[in-house]
């Protein structure tokens, strides 16, 4: 696991095989000598002013690729394109109208998988997906892809506000061709890219964001502090969806679809986090038509995961926002699983037990200052990217 501070840091939980817990590697960070609310607030103010003075163009990398999918493309080819290029979403383009048509995300595929699993045979699904077009997804009841967009010259602050207000993980940036007047997809601004831009260009201010995640109420946390407080029939870790190594894959697919989330913590009988199952893991199972794999248990499915899976990033509630942003600068992180640490253990807790989840939406929402933090609801920005705890996701 990777860490957020010398004593309490995010960690990267690597797995060798399907169930073992692997090892933990620590990554130190530097904290300022004085931990005051005033310096923390001043740093936030400076970061917000910085975002208001820079445009989305400024956050573009020097070199990048843009993958755009025609709505007439069949689902299988679109999925292969996403996987081959290492991305989990892409803008859609209606070539007949020469117009932007929204975004295709992994959750769209999850909804499609759920539809086939419940209404058709495996053979029918494998055959139909060969010819089924992206434009037909809406016929199955899959929600219309958001037509959210922004101009590249808009400020990063306005772009961030739009991401937060619409619960999206990525914002398509569109301009108009000066000759034809048609829309042109320029790029896609993701939450990760925006937060990384902050961490790189506001290094001094990030170092002063030293207050703990617990104090700042960033993330979604379990509502019950002890098993005795859990209402009958409710998940001990409500409102966070969880699974065990014996949970069938499709049960987790249902969680993804119904709750619009892209990762579910895998816990043992004591609630200790042992792994994470992501939407990308499901896509990997079915990309060759192996729909029968949805009947596997999570432990079996994890055994088919790529050996270069980078691990699950965890932290404790005592870690600071600044060190979390420093981690984002170094690694491709999209969420962290919050677990009980030494502080909770001293108070009768169990080290490593699930405590909460922090998504990039949570972090961005706090940094920008939009309302909604600490409301006790799961705020999975489910377009996610996985959206996952895997640093490998774009």
Automatic annotation (TrEMBL):
Pfam families: CBS. It comes from the Eukaryota. Residues 1-10, 384-394 have a biased composition (Polar residues). GO terms for molecular function: AMP binding; protein kinase binding; protein kinase regulator activity. Residues 143-205, 234-296, 305-375 form the CBS domain. GO terms for cellular component: cytoplasm; nucleotide-activated protein kinase complex; nucleus. The keyword Repeat applies. Residues 1-38, 373-394 are annotated as: Disordered. SMART domains: CBS. Keywords: CBS domain, Repeat. PROSITE patterns: CBS. Belongs to the 5'-AMP-activated protein kinase gamma subunit family. PANTHER family: AMP-ACTIVATED PROTEIN KINASE, GAMMA REGULATORY SUBUNIT, LD22662P. This is CBS domain-containing protein.
